[in-house]
Structure formats: C-alpha cells, structure tokens
C-alpha cells in the first residue's frame, strides 16, 4: 500500500464530487461523472508518476470489491418470487442483446471485449454488469470506458423518451404494472430505470406503483450477473489456457470475487429469511455504488478520450442495435403474455 496510496487518494478525490454530481443528475449517475472527470484530468496529466500504481490497483481491485458488495441486498428467494411474472421477458431480452452483440461483432469486426461488455451492459444492468464482466474477460480500462460511455448515452435517451413512448403505445395510466415491467426489462442501468419509472408515476399520479414494479424487475435482471460472469470467466479462462498450452481448470478460471459475490447474495437471502431487515444491508449497497464510482474514476484516468471518440462509431452502433432489440422484444413479449 505504500506504493499505491497516492493513486488511491487521487481516485477518492475524484469519486467524492462525482458521487455528489451523480445525485444531482441521477440520469447520468456517479460512475459516468467519475469517468468523465477522470478523462478530462488525464488530458492535462498524462504522466501519473507515483500515482500510477494506485490508480491501476483501484481500477482492478476496488472494482472487484464493489461487485462483491453488490451481492449484499440481493435476496435470491424474494426476487425469484416477485420477478416470476417478468422472468420470460428478462430471459428473452438478455438473449437478444447477447446474440446481437455476437452477430455485430463478427459482421463489423468490433473488438470482442468491447462487444461483450456492451452486450452484457445493455442486457443486464449497465455499469454494474460491465464492472462484473470486465475482470472476467480481462478487459482493459479503455475498453471498459468505451462500453460505459455507450451504455450511458442510451441510458439518457431511455430516461427521456421511454415515458413518451409508453404514452404513445397506450400503456395503462391507472396502473404502473405495464410500464414498470417495460422500464425494468428494456432500460439497462438502475439510475435510468428509476428515472423513467418515476417520470411515469409523476405523469399519471400513481405514487410509487410504477417505480416499485420497475425496481423489482430490475433486481431480478441483476441476478443474471451471476451466471453470465461465471460463463464468461469459464470461456475466457479456457481460451487463454488453450492459447498458452495449459490444461484448463474451471475452478481456476472463475475469479474469486465471483464466488464472494454469490456468497454475499446467499448470506443476504438467509438473513432476510431469518427476519433481519433489508435496511441492515443498505450501507453495503451504498458502499458498493461508491466503490464503483471510485473505480470508474481510475478507469477514466487511464483512458484516452480522443481515442475513445475516434473509435466510438461501431460500439455506438452496437449499443443502438442492442437497445432497439431489447425494446422490441420486451414489448412483443408483454403482448404475448397479455401484460400490455
């Protein structure tokens, strides 16, 4: 830590104002603010010197710690029960996004790791899913920054236009169920899900009916981080070992932080069943969100904003196609299931 503390302090100094700005502008959120601040700072501070080791450590280890703390507050039993109604839609939207990402990666020669991160981020839960998948696929900081930037762009569009789209499509204005499921399955990041759902509640004076439904569905989607991250870890671990002529071992391929994430979710589930209130885990969830902001600050500091803009065309196109595909499938599935 003697070599890393300077870089950690720098990331912390960026994370605090980014966290506060994210609360003022919830559609953007703290992680995006942190990446942007980090990118701007690094334009004037190219040589990090003694701070470099700590910045690198924060972008990797703190990010993994954030994912572990994300597991606290995920009640697997409760989410499975309350999310049963939306589960077929969630499975279909996640599959759609991943298939589109895979197909476009091959069609347009998009870097594999960026396409994977955009596909996972679009289909599950935006920045949190990217944070979980990045170490599993060994993505570098610029690839993570590129994916987060793409997700952020479509988050903003969804938060602004989805309530208008829901009104135009004729979603019920006396119940928040239909639009809540739509927002929970078609919008990727939690901040934008809550923004769109809260806007619908305000438009039709529904209290928090839409918001409660959307957040429950979103929480169910978040659980997909577990199998997706494990699957990616196994795939990339096997691929890496094959390239190096080593024997593949599944246990070694899955990062330790994934096991801790699952363990945290199991601990939460058992604790809630024993009568411990969900508020007990609230500080850990808050810590998780802050650590993600801190890690994103480090990633921003390690990213070249000019290069990201110059190479951003194909990832943005990929994000647009994933977003459109998820939206269309979510609406179609709700029609089939009679929810809309």
User: Which percent range describes the beta-strand content?
Assistant: under 5%
Along the chain, the helix and strand elements come as: HHHHHHHHHHHHHHHHH
Specify the number of helices: 17
Question: Could you give a short account of the major beta sheet?
Answer: none
Low-confidence stretches: none
- Taken from the alpha-carbon principal axes, the silhouette is globular
State the share of residues found in helices, binned by percent.
Answer: over 70%
What is the tally of beta strands?
A: 0
Rounded to the nearest angstrom, the radius of gyration is: 20 Å
Question: What value does the average pLDDT take?
Answer: 84
Q: Structural class per helix/strand content?
A: mainly alpha
Question: Main traits of this protein?
Answer:
17 helices; single chain; 78% helix; mainly alpha; 340 residues; globular
Q: Strands, helices and their partners?
A:
Layout: H1 5-24, H2 30-44, H3 52-70, H4 76-82, H5 87-108, H6 112-123, H7 127-137, H8 141-169, H9 177-186, H10 190-204, H11 209-222, H12 225-243, H13 250-253, H14 256-273, H15 282-301, H16 305-310, H17 313-336
Give a summary of the structure in a few sentences.
This protein is mainly α and 340 residues long. Helices cover 78% and strands 0% of the residues.
Summarize the structure in words.
The chain is globular. The model has no long low-confidence stretch (mean pLDDT 84). The longest helix has 29 residues, at 141-169. It contains 17 helices and no strands. It is 78% helix and 0% strand. α6 runs parallel beside α8 and α9 packs antiparallel against α17. With 340 residues, it is mostly helical. It has helices spanning 5-24, 30-44, 52-70, 76-82, 87-108, 112-123, 127-137, 141-169, 177-186, 190-204, 209-222, 225-243, 250-253, 256-273, 282-301, 305-310, 313-336.
């Amino acid at each position: 830590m003697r070599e890393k503390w300077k870089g950690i302090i720098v990331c912390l100094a960026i994370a605090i104002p980014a966290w506060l700005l994210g609360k003022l502008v919830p559609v953007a959120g703290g992680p995006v603010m942190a990446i942007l601040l980090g990118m701007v700072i690094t334009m004037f501070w190219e040589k990090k010197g003694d701070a470099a080791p700590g910045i690198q450590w924060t972008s990797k280890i703190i990010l993994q710690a954030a994912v572990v703390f994300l597991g606290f507050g995920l009640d697997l039993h409760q989410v499975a029960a309350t999310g049963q109604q939306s589960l077929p839609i969630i499975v279909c939207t996640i599959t759609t996004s991943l298939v589109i990402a895979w197909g476009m990666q091959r069609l347009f020669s998009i870097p594999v790791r960026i396409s994977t991160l955009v596909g996972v981020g679009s289909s599950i839960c935006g920045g949190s899913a990217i944070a979980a998948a990045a170490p599993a696929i060994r993505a570098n900081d610029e690839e993570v920054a590129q994916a987060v930037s793409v997700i952020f762009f479509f988050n903003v569009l969804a938060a602004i236009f989805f309530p208008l789209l829901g009104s135009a499509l004729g979603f019920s204005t006396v119940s928040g169920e239909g639009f809540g499921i739509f927002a929970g399955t078609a919008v990727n990041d939690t901040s934008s899900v809550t923004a769109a759902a809260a806007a619908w509640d305000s438009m039709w004076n529904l209290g928090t009916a839409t918001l409660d439904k959307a957040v429950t569905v979103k929480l169910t989607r978040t659980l997909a981080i577990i199998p997706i991250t494990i699957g990616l870890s196994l795939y990339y671990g096997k691929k890496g070992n094959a390239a190096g002529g080593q024997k593949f071992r599944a246990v070694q391929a899955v990062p330790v932080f994934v096991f801790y994430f699952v363990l945290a979710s199991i601990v939460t589930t058992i604790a809630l069943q024993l009568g411990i209130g969900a508020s007990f885990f609230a500080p850990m969830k808050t810590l998780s969100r802050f650590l993600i902001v801190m890690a994103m600050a480090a990633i921003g500091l390690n990213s070249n904003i000019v290069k990201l803009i110059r190479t951003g065309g194909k990832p943005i196109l990929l994000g647009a196609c994933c977003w459109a595909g998820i939206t269309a499938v979510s609406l179609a599935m709700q029609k089939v299931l009679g929810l809309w």
